Write the structure tokens for this entry.
Amino acid sequence: MENPLAHYDLLIIGGGPIGLACGIAAQESGLSYLIVERGCLVNSLYRYPQNMTFFSTSERLEIGGVPFVSTNPKPRRAEALEYYRRIQQKFALNIQLFEEVLEVNRLEPGFEIITSKSAYTAGYVVVATGFYDIPCKLDIQGEDLPKVSHYYNDPHYYAGQKVIVVGASNSSVDAALETYRKGADVTLVVRGEGIGPRVKYWVRPDIENRIANGEVRALFNSKLTEIRPTEVDILTPDGPITVENDFVLALTGYQPDFAFLEKIGVKLADDPSREPLHDPKTMETNVPGLFLAGVVCGGMNTHLWFIENSREHARQIVKHILEVRSPES
């Protein structure tokens, strides 16, 4: 006779801050639960640049009622990683790391969840996968060359190199400034008319001054059209140009795993937002018993949800589960 699959009241896909918050809410409400994360603990934060500073203050990143004490007015990546590691330890959260969820199949009742390492059943499922795993591609020739990266980590790697940075968001501006200060020859390529409106207020004057002084070259209303091993082609308002180049940082944003959402039955909006269908009061999707939490709720509008305004999703979800589940479930 085969051993039955491990069963949980709630299975949470994603071990980022919001996934952890869902685990804490389930634990405090007496629900059995399991968090499954495809990478390391808070994997998306781990992949942020080493020197990244959060826009939010530390208290807005807190979960589980545990104070986040920072030595800076706005915490840095390393402090956040340590805070969430201690959260996991404090609550002894039931989490499986480096285990990818491959399938979520509807049962009557509940779900069967197939992962890269095991299989489980659960009464309810929460998808809290964020959006940082899938970059928005340029879809141009040469984008797959080794010199091209859609992620940025440490500026030292680019010291003395000719670097193209694509985009005008916080990540693009940070990369342009940091690599410039390590001695890189930086060209910023921006589709729009100027630096993005959501760039951190304390960073904006810095990048604007570097551009005005000619220390960082900025090409606005421009786009990359081809990447080759030692140069790139850029279409500018004055016509196409070719620029000598060693590395391209294509920091053009990221998106949720829409293919996975559709595979598990979640309907997406038929517009550019591709927002997954869900009830904002309960966070339940069109699939009964399947919930969304965190940034994934916004679809392509990844600027709508942050830790500070989506940590409440955990309580909303658990409250609804407790209200609707039968006593014997």
